Amino acid sequence: MVYITPDGMIAGLLLLLCITAISYYGFAIYASIEFFSHSNHSTLWQLSRRLRQGGWGLRPQPGVPPLHPVLTNPSLAIECHPPVSILKPVCCLSSDDYNNLASFCNQDYPTYEIIFGIQDAQDSSIAVVKQLIDDFPTRDIRFVVSDRILGSNLKVNNLANAAIEAKYDVLVLADSDIYVEPDYLTQIVQPLQNPEVGVVTCMYRSRTEGWLSAFEALSISTEFLPSVLVARKLEGMSFALGATIVIKKAVLDAIGGFASVANYLGDDFRLGYLPAQAGYQVVLSAHVVDHVMSTTRWRDVIHHQTRWNRNNRFARPGGYLGLIFTYGVVTSSLLCLLLHGSWLGWTILGVTWSLRLVMAWMVGIQYLRDPVALNCFWLIPLRDVFSFALWCYSFWGDTVEWRGRRLKLTKNGELI
Fold first, then answer.
1. CA atoms within a 13 Å half-sphere pointing along the CA-CB vector of 179
2. Residue 83 CA: distances (Å) to CA of 113, 163, 214, 368
3. Model pLDDT for residues 26-75, shown as the tens digit of each residue
4. Are 335 and 18 in contact (CB under 8 A)?
5. Phi-psi bin for 372: left (phi > 0), alpha (psi -120 to 50), beta?
6. Which of 102, 109, 270, 304 is the most buried (most CB within 10 A)?
7. pLDDT (tens digit per residue) in 353-362
8. Which residues have CB under 8 Å from 135's CB, separation 6+?
9. Which one, of 277, 204, 190, lies nearest residue 237 by Cα?
């Protein structure tokens, strides 16, 4: 009779977790190559347009390698330019947010409007929006101040109030901390040429101020977005990302309007999930926007990450639990310690860490051109340990803090 010691059982479990992590990293590398290669080959209009402009059309980041140009002979393609209503939910804006918002006013696009949704007539956001109106007199910019409440998510309330004033059938939703290039609108609306497409969303890279915000943002392009590409490849796109959501009015009406997401913390997830359930296609665009972060306190980092984690836990409990199979840096380190630094332990650790870093380099640096990923690449193992600790912590408790409010998540993910 073979007796397996407790240490042997733990070592076997850790070895299994390391193998699944290695498989996950490898598949994420494959999914990223497939996505960006396919996008670069199929989106002829995008590449030809950028080449006609004399480059990739992105603001260069010092020391960051350019996107990999896999298409060498782009041909001209027809672009569509449907009129667009950009909806901006804002709260407590400061002058630091001005450049982000101004980037939406500098779009190289024929017909669009920008509508800001504001809850409180005394909100500091009004002064910032009025400054934009003065600085861009030829743009159709206005704001709606309304305390009408659809649900517990104040951001969705602002979106719904702004949407009432929207003149056009294509809505673009983007937060106030997003910065975009002049060709942003042209690029993200192109998938709508397919009548079966109801939602378009896109990925994002970070612009940070200070080391703490860089440490927090490091996981976005090196951990979170690889998981998005894996989910897209395995399941297809059935969710959206808050950095940008393009949705047709008819699709929004078909899922019950903003009221259908007004009581959910993960409104962006559901604005992709509900249309997918209704039979519409959700497309992940190859266009990448910039997410501006300026976190200065550890307390805020923990609140941000816990809110995000608990939202994911309630929105997709199975997927959240399955993240244990992706923390290879932690499990391989524990296995190496348990095996007292044996050749097997070091071999598993070396393979796991190598694939983890290759995945981070390919997605974060080669494809997304994220300056945070490049400058803080050496911190990825430490950031993974921090992510794992917060993943464990988020299993306990059902409350989140959001803009000074303490909210409770119910079993189906609704906010109280």
1. 15
2. 8, 14, 36, 28
3. 999 999 999 998 765 444 444 444 444 444 333 444 444 444 333 333 33
4. yes
5. alpha
6. 270
7. 999 999 999 9
8. 102, 105
9. 277
